[in-house]
Amino acid sequence: MAPKEPKRLLADRLQGTSLYLVGMMGSGKSTVGRYLAQRLGYQFFDTDQVIEQVTGQGIPEIFAHQGEAAFRELETQVLADLCRYPRLVVATGGGIVQRSTNWGYLQHGVVVWLDVDLAVLAQRLRPDDDSRPLLNTPDPQATIADILAKRQRFYAQADVHVRIEEAVAVTMVADWVEAQVMRRLKDPEMHQRADSFPAGSPESFYP
């Protein structure tokens, strides 16, 4: 019998446990997350996209009309719904780690920090990108550095830390994530978090 591919080995080892990707805006969570979900046979969700679907508003509109606090509350509500289901890869908003409540939901799965070098982030994030309201400042690059400095200790609570120091292909980042998650799951201190899930799919909430 032929040996299993690494992606199938990881899927078997996960036993339905979801993956939650955290990290700065521009770190590639959505791109990597979609690719990982496809490889693992999981469903993919992006919390920002879910919020936009549910509210019928773009993220900049929510920030402008309701404020950041309202947006953060929506993030928590979405995360609380998604964490009830197995076999997901979830790309989270960059600031989701700063709410302690959210960690109770994130820890239903394996939390992966995509730690992208500041110089790479600066290259990826365009100053004229209206979809990122937090960068609507006179000096976006300094803002990125300031936000990262404030969030770093929260990101560091993740189960898995994947350091990305240069621009690389999504396939390579996915390989790194899978290898690190596999290594982490072999650690006897890593709790099995896929205990009990309701029947059904989060698609019933978020088509």
What does this structure look like?
- By secondary structure, this protein is α/β, with parallel strands linked by helices.
- The chain has a single domain (8-186), classed as P-loop containing nucleotide triphosphate hydrolases (Rossmann fold).
- The chain is 48% helix and 12% strand.
- Strands 2-3-1-4-5 form a five-stranded parallel sheet.
- The protein is globular and about 45 Å long.
- Mean pLDDT is 84; it is low at 191-200.
Sum up the structure in keywords.
48% helix; globular; five-stranded parallel β-sheet; single chain; 12% strand; 9 helices; Rossmann fold; alpha/beta; 5 strands; 207 residues
What is this structure, in a nutshell?
This protein is of the alpha/beta class and 207 residues long.
